[in-house]
What does this fold into?
Amino acid sequence: LVGIGNPLLDLEADVPPEFLKKWKLKENDAVLCSDKLIPMFFDLVDNYKVQFIAGGSTQNSLSVAQWMIGKPHSVTYFGCIGGDHFGHVLRVKAEEVGMNAVYQIRPKEKTGTCATCIVGQSRSLCAHLAAANLFSADYLELQENWKLIEKARYFYVAGFFMSSCLPAIYKIAEHADNAGKYFMMNLSATFICSTMKEHFVRLFPQIDVLFGNTKEFFEIAKALGFESKSLKEVVFCIANIEKASNRSRLVVVTQRTKAGDNIRRKHVSNVSGAAACRRTYCRYKRHW
It folds into this structure.
């Protein structure tokens, strides 16, 4: 399994609803950090009990996958970090779970961070990408890196990475399609669905598995012109978007603490107790 994404050091803390209101953040939402939100990071660190955790959507999911597989270095992760202490922390954490982290390093840049604000059973994410935003597709083409891609059978990318390096996503999706491998994506956030419509349209024929929550699926459906108040109607439309291969597309809809729905073309199954792995709802399924 190979994944590519934005490696971030999470600053995680329990906060009251007033904190989100103060910084105009929403529950169960994710945004990129603007200049106005920079002071929010200091507010979080100065006034709340913060845990520093190796994170980033794709890295979180792959860490869980590595844990589930058990065999060291079964999972490879590509991303970009800075040459600082936070970058070192991310490398150590990846090694602890047995994941093969192949980081592109920008020595003069800071490693990306993400404020993870927990309110009860909900969360609000604010990501400051920094070095994570500087990944280059040609890093994948290095001989030692491309060998890892050729060896892999499954590929996973979170929609968040679309704002960082689209050429790298296209390169991996094309390789997976040409080699008969599986390409998986996560919608990641409503703002990704609404702003990256044309790129999703280009990638959909190559997407074998698509993850997302209910809000994200309604948002991508709206962007694609599939508006409906029925979640199953929306997901059926997305599951049946034309594919480049003969394989059907598996769509996995998460619903917070409720059971998740798996939809593959005209088949629907309900999965009880879908794993909510701390800050991500992604599940890795070895069923092919």
Remarks:
- The CA atoms of residues 176 and 198 lie 20 Å apart.
- The longest strand covers residues 112-119.
- The chain is about 35% helix and 30% strand.
